[in-house]
Amino acid sequence: MKKIMSWLMLVVTLSVALLGGFAQPSHAATTGTEDSLARVKAKGTLVMGTSPDYPPYEFLVNRGGKERVVGMDVDIAKKIAKDLGVKLVIKQMDFDSLLVALETNKVDMVISGMSPTPARKKSVDFSKVYYKGGQSIIINKADKGLYKDKDSFENKSLGAQTGSIQYNLGKKQIKGSKMKGLAKISDLILALKSHKAEGVIMETPSAQAYVDNDPDLAMINGKFDLGSGENDTAIGFKKGSTSLVNAVNKSVDEITQKKLTKTYLKDAGTYMKTNTHNTSMWHYSGYFLKGVEYTLLITIISVFFGILLGILFALMRLSKMKLVHALGVVYIEFVRGTPLMIQVMFVYFGIGLFINIPALIAGIIAVSLNSAAYVAEIIRGGINSVAKGQTEAARSLGLSQRQTFQSVVFPQALKNIWPALGNEFVSLIKESSIVSIIGVTDLIYQLKAVQTATYKGVIPIVVAMIIYFILTFSLSKVLNHYERKMKHDA
Amino acid sequence: MPEEMIAIENINKKFGDTEVLKDLNGKVEKGQVICVIGPSGGGKSTFLRCLNMLEQPTSGKIMFENSDLTSLNESQINQLREKMGMVFQSFNLFSNMTVVENVKLAPIKVKKMSNDDAQKLALKLLAQVGLAEKADDYPASLSGGQQQRVAIARALAMNPDVMLFDEPTSALDPEMVGEVLKVMQDLANEGMTMVVVTHEMGFAKNVADEVWFMDGGVFAEKGTPDQIFEHPQNERTQDFLAKILEA
Ligand SMILES: Nc1ncnc2c1ncn2[C@@H]1O[C@H](COP(=O)(O)OP(=O)(O)O)[C@@H](O)[C@H]1O
User: Fold this and answer.
1) Which intervals hold domain ABC transmembrane type-1 (chain A) (predicted)?
2) Which chain B residue has its CA at the smallest distance from A390's CA?
3) CA–CA dist B135, A100 (Å, integer)
4) Domain A285-489 in the same topology as domain A135-225
């Protein structure tokens, strides 16, 4: 869980910082007063950012078909909110996105099993440590005799989350180890079971959770040489939030004194038991259904705006006015030349600096803007495919350029590009899945949620795969039907 | 005193560095039928397309009903184009519309005619070109000759003052040429002003009031059909006619 910021986040953070530089001259520095605590109290809510895929720290449970974030970190956040006299709001997102969310004021604090490493301390303020975990290694139970501690893994392959501290520990402290990095713990467990890795390095409480819930797994103490901070877990705040950090530290002190984390971990264990009580996919159908709903919602709205904007950009690119043409070209080429993933993060965090947009809206905006560039090129091709004589005939009858476009060129272009537009629609269903990184609860997001909740890696993937296929296949069928009808008409 | 409809004054047209039309002059009077003939590549199409500004002349004036087309803006040109029907070599019927919709489109969009009136007008014009029963078919299902007759009806629907024909029969199978020429001849008989670029010498001989022979971007010779076909003065005209008659 103790991930180092990936390079991707760095890019976004930089651009966000750049934008932020214009947007808000860091007011803490100029005014001298620091109002982080006052602001939380004024709005009456404490927004916690977390990545609920890390039991027992934070994970999702299925309560009557609805999902809830629970775990030790949630209990801690509840206590803090209660101590401050405000309401707790939980915002879910990928671990990767948490620090940027702090930076851009999307959340007030991050509690997500995060370690206060020296690198992180440069950009984030941390509370006192509320929990000290150890590092363990999960192995297949069948191999129990083979491995004792980290040194048993010399020249063996080991798994850990990409960019995590565990990954670095394995690499530095085990001679000749072949480290295998994956983003999700659940995927690492799959790798372990299929012997792509002989062990997975993980924090002790998490390792315990997996072992408790999977009879095929066992854990051993890694006996790693742990430096400062790497073993600790603390709460992250935006740099300069001194008053808020001080207030929260009082709660942390109390938690430490009363050893409350013990109780919290026990609660988490109970949740995990009930979670694994019924792990049939049917039990989680509500998750998948909600995922389908969001995936379709995002796709349909994005197709609509993608086509509208796509027409606009296509016309701009076809325009004889040099500036308009140039703007069209720049937009289309730029959007097609950058990954959708970055665009999603840029809209959510970058634009979010100026106006606070919910993740769902940000996702829709990003996907629409992205699709618009591709649709624009399809439409441009379609318009160019309409014979010049059609335009000349219309113009010779006295139709204006606009009337010619509306009545003659565009309908014919549309007929020519219908199959390509359909493909774009179908691929949007698949590509929109990227919005899960900012916490939009689409099908991919729900797939991961079910994976963490059930400790089952493969079956949720199969279910999601089938659902995606049903969606795209039936859509293709429908589109084909209209394509044939259109051909028949003309 | 004959009424002047179009006056062409010192028209030049260049595509890049190639000079396609060189200092053309001419007058079209109301009710006249002008046939433009000449070897291909001579600039006939380009000339005709300059008349309704589908091509912008590089210099010179085109006076149409007392306005200089080359000095007008987009919307003024659109208004004058209504009065100049054009028929193309490749028909250019709108493939996304039925025959009757093709004819109705401009009256509804440009003249803001009601759909009912436009429908009546279209059916009348389709009957005039002998295609009333094809009203609801799509162009793709019609023969070339039928498509060209629809194209003529479509142009007539705007009630133009002059009709421009750009080699209207060149893309047709020989057996269909007659039906289109017949429609054009009827139009001429009704007094329509027409400028026709054509390779149909028979049509030019029988229907034209004046024949303009064009070669190398200039009108090498102008005259009545009798003058041009029976007593050509210009060497190039003589050559051209000799080749045509051999073929
Ligand atoms: N859009 C254009 N761009 C460049 N050259 C052209 C264009 N249209 C016509 N031309 C050239 O102009 C000359 C005259 O063409 P055209 O008017 O079609 O002659 P005609 O109709 O007598 O056969 C030809 O040499 C042709 O290649």
Assistant:
1) 292-471
2) B92
3) 65
4) no
* Atom 5 of ligand 1, nearest CA residue: B15
Residue among B75, B90, B95 whose CB faces A490 most closely = B95
Whether residue B40 has its Cβ less than 6 Å from ligand 1: yes
Nearest-by-Cβ selection for A398 from B79, B96, B164? B79
| Cα angle for residues A344, A349, A354 (degrees, 5° grid) | 125
Contact (CB, 8 A) for A347 and A288 = no
Instruction: Give CA A131 to chain center in angstroms.
Output: 26
Q: Mind telling me how many Å the CA of B15 is from chain A's nearest CA?
A: 18
CATH 3.40.50.720 fits A285-489, yes or no: no
CB contact under 8 A, A489 and B138: yes
Q: What is the largest CA-CA distance in chain B?
A: 55
Other CB atoms within a 10 A radius of the CB of residue A293 amount to 14
Top-level CATH class of A135-225? alpha beta
> pLDDT (tens digit, 9 = 90+) per residue, B66-88?
889 999 998 899 989 999 999 99
The pLDDT tens digits of the residues spanning B225-238 come to 999 999 999 999 99
Q: How far is the CA of B164 from the centre of ligand 1 (A)?
A: 17
What span, in angstroms and rounded, lies between the C-alpha atoms of B244 and B232?
Answer: 14
Residues A293, A420: Cα–Cα separation, whole Å: 25
Kindly report the nearest CA distance between residue A398 and chain B, in angstroms. 5
Query: How far is residue A270's CA from residue A264's CA, in Å, rounded to a whole number?
Result: 10
Phi first, then psi, for residue A357 (nearest 5°) are -105, 140
The domain locations on chain A are: 1-28, 34-129+234-275, 135-225, 285-489
Q: Does B69 touch chain A (CB under 8 A)?
A: no
How many C-beta atoms lie closer than 10 Å to residue A358's C-beta?
A: 15
- CA–CA distance, B229 with A361 (Å, rounded to integer): 76
Place of tokens 């200039």: B218
Express each pLDDT in A431-456 by its tens digit: 888 888 777 778 888 887 777 767 66
The CATH class, in words, for A34-129+234-275 is: alpha beta
Q: What is the mean pLDDT of residues A121-129?
A: 91
Q: Look-up: residue for tokens 């049939």?
A: A280
Contacts of residue B73, Cβ cutoff 8 Å, sequence gap at least 6: none
Task: Give me the residues paired with residue B196 across strands.
Answer: B35, B165
Shortest Cα distance, chain B CAs vs residue A488, angstroms: 10
